Amino acid sequence: MSLFEELRARGLIAQCTNEAAVKELIDKGGVTFYIGFDPTADSLHVGHLMQLIIMRHMQRAGNRPIALLGGGTGMVGDPSGRTDMREMLTPEKIQYHCDCFKKQMEKIVDFSEGQARMVNNADWLLGLNYIEFLRDVGVHFSVNRMLAAECFKSRLERGLSFIEFNYMLMQGYDFYKLYKDYGCTLEFGGDDQWSNILGGIELIRRKEGKEVYGLTFALLTTADGKKMGKTQKGAVWLDPNKTSPYEFFQYWRNTDDANVEKCLKFLTFLPLDEIERLAALRDQEINHAKEVLAYEVTKLVHGKEEADKALETARAVFGAGGVSEDMPTTALAAADFSDGAIGVIDLLIRTKLAPSRGEARRLIEQGGVSLDGEKVTSIDQTVPQAAFADGVVIKKGKKVFHRAVCE
Question: How many CB atoms lie within 10 A of CB 180?
Answer without folding.
Answer: 12
